[in-house]
Amino acid sequence: MYATNPEQRYAYLQRIARRHGGPGVDPDEAVQEAFASFLAAFDPDGEAPPLAWLTLTLKRRCWALRDRRHAHSLGATPTGIGVPDEPEWRQARYAVDPADVAARLDDRDRLAAAMPRLRPDERRALSLLALGHTYREIGELTGWTYTKVNRCLAEGRTALRADEAWSEAP
What we know:
single chain; about 170 residues; mainly alpha; 9 helices; about 0% strand; globular
């Protein structure tokens, strides 16, 4: 399923970085930062398989790089934490609108109230998607076909949109 030699695995990780980081994110830099996080935080005695853990870490790193680039393009102003020896990515913090935070928290609460009303397969598929897995990866993890993954996600989204607790604003 996954590549067996190191060059193929690295190329696989670079493809993930390009797909999730988009233009402007250096795939080599993202992979190296994901490796650094992996070495610092991976628990070999834990249940997570190493490649899956590294892949998810890489996706999250790419999303962070993409979001930071997007914030810069929108004119967000970084405010440093005053530690000159720290790397720029640790110093930069962006102004957050409290109204946006409150709206996201309300959305999260309404979503949490609506999730139990979904079928178990829909909940599982949506949860795996939220964790950053692709349709193919969800199929591999669950043993489902691509069609079933697509159907569970589509029906789950439709049910959430139709649910009164989720669709109505407070």
